[in-house]
Design goal:
Elements lengths: L8 E4 L4 H12 L3 E6 L12 E6 L5 H11 L3 E4 L15 H4 L1 H19 L7 E5 L16 H22 L4 E7 L8 H12 L3 H6 L7 H13 L8 E5 L2 E5 L1
Parallel strand pairs: 1-2, 1-4, 2-3, 4-5, 5-6, 6-7
Antiparallel strand pairs: 7-8
Helix pairs in contact: 1-8, 2-4, 4-5
Length: 248
């Protein structure tokens, strides 16, 4: 996987934020990239690779099956999900509380299932983005079911790795749990809500979490991950401003 030229990568949730940074970095590393999102996205100066956009609902299981059949990718990165409703428990409704289960977990489930059913060719890599919130002892108390949903994404990615191993598919699955990325559509509302709860200005709150994660750092980390030897890839990583850190 050290050379990504000619190795198609699908990035699910590529229109903005971390997904956009990942799609751009993979293209710059030479991969033909299929950028999947609900809304159009622009990728100027993508580099030696190319970026083709596919406007689609990643939560529709037919989309995963169709795109895998049409593009035969060797790299899949699932970043898509919804922005959590930043309110304490008593100010949530069941619909807002469960939103990330109905989007993030559903998307991961459909794509992992289709990867195993297709299956992707031996040596392929699948990276699912969870969240550092899944590791917090108290979850993420201002974001409804977000932390639980992101933990479940990590679990089912591990389940998929077990099925790949049992079937001798030679597909490597790993999950990435990013910390605060305040420039993104998910990260900024979370930062603002938790800063307000702590009685801090946003800048003061962020100083406690430096160095901060950016789409550019994320893109480089994913390129490094999919280029690494499969035997060296951990089941899960925390990702922060200093890069990837393997979880035991």
């Amino acid at each position: 996987m050290s050379d990504l030229s000619g190795r198609t990568a699908i990035v699910v949730g590529a229109s903005r934020g971390l997904g956009h940074g990942i799609a751009t970095a993979l293209a710059q590393a030479g991969a033909p990239v299929v950028a999947v999102s609900r809304t159009p996205a622009e990728f100027p100066d993508a580099g030696v690779g190319s970026v083709r956009t596919e406007i689609a609902d990643a939560g529709d299981p037919r989309v995963a099956a169709d795109l895998l059949d049409r593009h035969s990718p060797e790299v899949i990165v699932v970043v898509a999900g919804s922005v959590p409703h930043m309110r304490p428990l008593q100010q949530q409704t069941w619909e807002t509380f469960s939103a990330n289960w109905e989007s993030d977990v559903r998307i991961a489930f459909h794509w992992l299932r289709e990867v195993l059913l297709t299956p992707l060719r031996p040596g392929s890599r699948v990276v699912v983005f969870s969240s550092g919130a899944a590791l917090n002892a108290d979850g993420s108390p201002l974001s409804g079911g977000y932390a639980g949903a992101k933990a479940t994404q990590r679990y089912i990615t591990a389940y998929a790795q077990g099925e790949s191993r049992a079937a001798g598919l030679d597909i490597t699955f790993t999950s990435v749990l990013p910390r605060f990325a305040p420039s993104t559509g998910v990260g900024r509302p979370a930062v603002e809500a938790y800063a307000a709860r702590a009685g801090l200005e946003v800048d003061d709150f962020l100083r406690h979490h430096a160095p901060l994660l950016t789409p550019e750092i994320t893109g480089k980390a994913v390129v490094d991950l999919v280029q690494a030897d499969a035997v060296d890839v951990a089941p899960a990583y925390v990702l922060n401003g200093t890069g990837l850190h393997a979880l035991s």
